[in-house]
Design goal:
Blueprint lengths: L3 H12 L7 E4 L10 H9 L3 E8 L4 E7 L5 E3 L5 E3 L12 E5 L2 E2 L5 E2 L5 H5 L7 E5 L20 E4 L2 E4 L2
Parallel strand pairs: 1-2, 1-6, 6-9, 9-10
Antiparallel strand pairs: 2-3, 4-5, 7-8, 10-11
């Protein structure tokens, strides 16, 4: 069995084959999520602009904020490290949104953490590629989507790239 670190390296190697573009919105990993540290480093090294989410608890919205190494981050009430700089207002700039998954199925339906932040955010970025990342053992036979659930374009795991395309 591969170690977690080996699985995360495989996920990164598969991500490198996808057309992510130059403006990538990605989460800063926490708890048992796939680590995004090396993904963020690779994106920055390849010349992409990286954006991290900041949650606005007043309306449960999520905004992308540009991130550069060394930028100050603060821990939110959700436990996420969030940027404190100005948000990106021109959401059409985003070429890709990389999303953490709790579970997913072969139809690219996803199960998140229940806050609905990505369900509210994704319709605001209709042109951006939607990619979930997870470990292969997070796949389940079937998830029952809600009306508000938005399927993904790709799900990248340590065992490969899942797509309906």
């Amino acid at each position: 069995m591969r170690t977690r670190k080996e699985k995360e390296k495989k996920i990164l190697s598969y991500l490198k084959t996808l057309p992510l573009g130059k403006h990538v919105f990605i989460y800063k990993s926490m708890r048992s999520e796939v680590s995004t540290e090396e993904i963020i480093e690779w994106l920055l090294h390849s010349g992409a602009a990286v954006y991290l989410p900041r949650i606005d608890a007043s309306d449960n919205s999520m905004q992308p904020h540009i991130f550069n190494p060394g930028d100050p981050l603060e821990r939110s009430s959700f436990g996420m490290e969030e940027p404190v700089n100005e948000p990106l207002f021109e959401l059409s700039l985003l070429s890709c949104v990389i999303i953490p998954l709790l579970a997913f199925d072969p139809q690219l339906q996803r199960l998140g953490y229940g806050g609905g932040f990505y369900d509210r955010f994704l319709p605001r970025t209709p042109e951006a590629l939607r990619i979930g990342i997870a470990f292969s053992e997070q796949m389940v036979d079937r998830l029952e989507p809600l009306e508000t659930d938005i399927p993904l374009d790709y799900i990248v795991t340590d065992s490969g790239i899942h797509s309906l395309i």
